Amino acid sequence: MSNLAKYLVRRFVAGLLTLLGVVVCLVALMDALPGDAARTIAGLDASPQEVARIRHLLGIGQPFTTQLWDYIDRLLHGTLGVSAVTGEPVLSEIGQRLPYTLELAAAATALGVLSGIVVGVLAATHRGRIADMVASVIGVAGISMPVYWLGILVIVLFAVKLRWLPPGGSTSPTSLILPAVTLSAFQIALVSRMTRASMLDHLEKDYVRTVRAKGVREWVTVRHALHNAFLPILTVISLQFGTLLGGAVVTETIFSWPGIGQLLVTSIQSRDFPTVQGIVLVFAAMFIVVNIITDLAYSLIDPRIRLAGR
User: Fold this and answer.
1) Residues 198, 106 within the same domain
2) Range of the domain at 155
3) H/E/C letters for each residue in the chain?
């Protein structure tokens, strides 16, 4: 078995154990809910038969080990249960919303990475000058500005005042612009600061001085330095992509974007616990997959990294 195959097997097993821990926590929290969760979901005016149906659906009243095994058994059969509100399979509801969340996260990541790297490189190559100061302002503003406040500001400016873009929904391709810009603001700030710090470290190394001494053009020197400085930047990008999948909850709610973030909010408001459990589990699984892909990308960017040694 090759080193890559051994590494993938190890990471797959570790990912399964992590998901098992998430499942245990989800079932434990469900079991620890105060009061009658079935009555809370059904409402005060619901019939006893409806309450009994929901109680059976949630497994309320059964021992914790029984609830845990029932949930794992459903997972092994490829299902996340049934929504306590709509009666539809949770996996089906998540499947309908997931493409929207992935589209938003991908657009925000692309915008954040490209803009952040450009701003960070300009700041590093123009250290102490106007470009560096502008990059610092962008970094501080992006990190300090709450997502919900920035979302409201861009809606008021570009949708209400200027009427250039739709304020929400997913009725047209332009509907993606405002939520993607809002969601990418923090990533632009973080990636630009990491790029600047990593580039400054490499621009002062001997191999860069050697390249410059040979009379190579400055943009070629910057490209070589960026290639060697990219690993810590990639780490930030991967972690931020996983965070964007979860952080899109607020953004999707503000812009009425029909992703699983908005589904999570509505499920919490309606006490639809099976759907909430399924969404949290999907978030955890996607985060694990992103981390594995990032580790594989390390070895492609820097051949000196060997996965077998990890």
Assistant:
1) yes
2) 99-309
3) CCHHHHHHHHHHHHHHHHHHHHHHHHHHHHHCCCCCHHHHHHCCCCCHHHHHHHHHHHCCCCCHHHHHHHHHHHHHCCCCCECCCCCCEHHHHHHHHHHHHHHHHHHHHHHHHHHHHHHHHHHHHCCCCHHHHHHHHHHHHHHHCCHHHHHHHHHHHHHHHCCCCCCCCCCCHHHHHHHHHHHHHHHHHHHHHHHHHHHHHHHCCHHHHHHHHCCCCHHHHHHHHHHHCHHHHHHHHHHHHHHHHHHHHHHHHHCCCCCHHHHHHHHHHCCCHHHHHHHHHHHHHHHHHHHHHHHHHHHHHCCCCCHHHC
